[in-house]
Amino acid sequence: MTQLEKFHELKKKVLLKYQEQYPFFQGNWKSFSAQDIQNLIGLIEVNCKQTVSEKWIYTHLKPEINSKVPRKDMLNILSKLVGFSGWDEFIFEDKIFESKELKESKKSKKMFWFSLLILIFVIVIAVGFFHKKELPKKKTIELNNQFTNEKVNSEEVKVFQVEDSVTQELEIIEGKVQVSNADDKKTKLVIQSPFYEPKTVVLHPNQANEPQQTIDLKPDDYAMMLKAFMLSDNKDWQTRKERLNTILANNLEVIVMLKNDLGSEYFNKNEFSQKLIVPTSTVRKMKIVEIKNDANKKIQFIRIKQE
Amino acid sequence: MMLTKRFNSLESNKNKMSKKFLLIVALFCGLFIKAQEAMKESVSVKKVVVQSLNQKFSAPVLNAYQENSKSKVDDVFSYFQMLTDASLTDDLKKEVVKNINLLYQNPNTIVVDFTSETFDKITVQQFIQKLLISEPILFSLSEETKYNAVDFNSWKISYSVSRTKSGIVTQIKVTQKMFFFETPKLFGEETKVVFSTLLGEM
């Protein structure tokens, strides 16, 4: 309730108080006569020991509609007349009532939001439950070296999942890949590596329930030998020299990709073999990314990335 | 009548002469223009040849090749050190020498004699011989490297060498030429023209 509305309420109470003293008055503020005003001034003087002018009553009490609230000292006088300590107490009662109402409304609001939250939560749970059925089934596949039965080095192998002619490279973590198969369709895995023979594996939907599967990769002996030679020291260099002559094709082409693929350097069989016979730290930092063999399985092409 | 005839024959001779002269002049002019064009062409060919590596390659690409040339310097000093290593066999050292020669553009390239205390300049072959009979020497190269003086087939690389000989460490600043050019290379029976980076004089 606004202050102005409170003032109108006070005016009603003042009128009732006046009627208590002058019961013959049965009208309202509009019919409040000059004599009634004098009587009211007298009543205020007796009860409140304060004086209110005739003009003030004409200005503030007589009109049916008030545009503004009168001064607080005058409001205090009228409030005292109707049994309150002052204007503050008069409006305070109402505030208590209002705050009670407010509390109740807040409580109901809280209840509303709480119910809404519960409803949302229930909906989310329900949607999650039904949606879970449609989530792609994930299967872990371990990639092993066929001979040593050890997990492959994640950096040396690439796995591509081919589904409906869409190819996606899978991330290999600690020699394992996560394969998702949402629609229970046939999935093809294409495995490529410079150190293992290429392999294509078709995963059937009925294999989906198997929690883990292993794919064995057959190492390319020459490529593995080459990797070992690049990391070796000066020992046993004569054997290395002989082997290099055997495993590398005479028309070998080695491309060393420079930093950020901004250039390349070419080596022939003699130059590359010499580098590996006496390996330096530069050779040990090289990383083979591609190997191609000729018809005799000899290494004919090597692509190296400079670290 | 006779005079008129003689005059006519003289006139016709004169006309023939001037026609021949004009033909010669026209031919000469044609040849001159062709020669000018040929000269222009040869000048433009020369311009292509003298194009510096800075103009030929973008800065990042040239920098990638320059940084790659530092790995050649690292390798050659590893090989130099191996030649002074008493634990390595002579046969292995022969392989090391082969590797050193593969890195140089010219077997008689002038290098710093790191076996001497005066750091004289000698050929790489002489230096190899001195290393083979030297006491063990350890070489360590600075990470900080500068590249400058880029021309049409080379640049200069500046680095610092730390030599440890008889327990005494000596720092030497070196500026070395690095060659970078297209050269035919044999891959089996097939020859391909590829870029090669080779070490030059110090």
Give a verbal description of the structure:
The complex is a heterodimer of chains A (307) and B (202). Chain A is α+β, with helices and mostly antiparallel strands and 307 residues long. Chain A has three domains: 135 residues, no CATH class; 81 residues, Carboxypeptidase-like, regulatory domain (Immunoglobulin-like), CATH 2.60.40.1120; 86 residues, no CATH class. In chain A, helix 7 packs antiparallel against helix 8. Chain A is rod-shaped and about 135 Å long. The relative contact order of chain A is 0.07. With 202 residues, chain B is an alpha+beta fold. Chain B has a single domain, classed as Nuclear Transport Factor 2, Chain: A (Roll). The longest helix of chain B is centred in the first third of the chain and has 48 residues. At the A-B interface, helix 7, strand 9 and helix 8 of A face helix 3, helix 4, strand 6 and strand 7 of B.
Mean pLDDT of chain A: 86
Number of helices of chain B: 5
Task: Report the helical percentage of chain B.
Answer: 40-55%
State the low-pLDDT regions of chain B, or none.
none
Structural class category of chain A: alpha+beta
Query: What is the string of helix and strand elements of chain A?
Result: HHHHHEEEEEEEEHHEEHHEE
Shape of chain B: elongated
**What do we call the CATH topology of chain B?**
Nuclear Transport Factor 2, Chain: A
CATH C-level name of chain B: Alpha Beta
Number of helices of chain A: 9
| Number of strand segments of chain B | 7
Query: What fraction of residues of chain B sit in β-strands?
Result: 25-35%
Taking Cα atoms only, what radius of gyration of chain A do you get, to the nearest Å? 48 Å
Biggest sheet layout of chain B: 5 strands, antiparallel
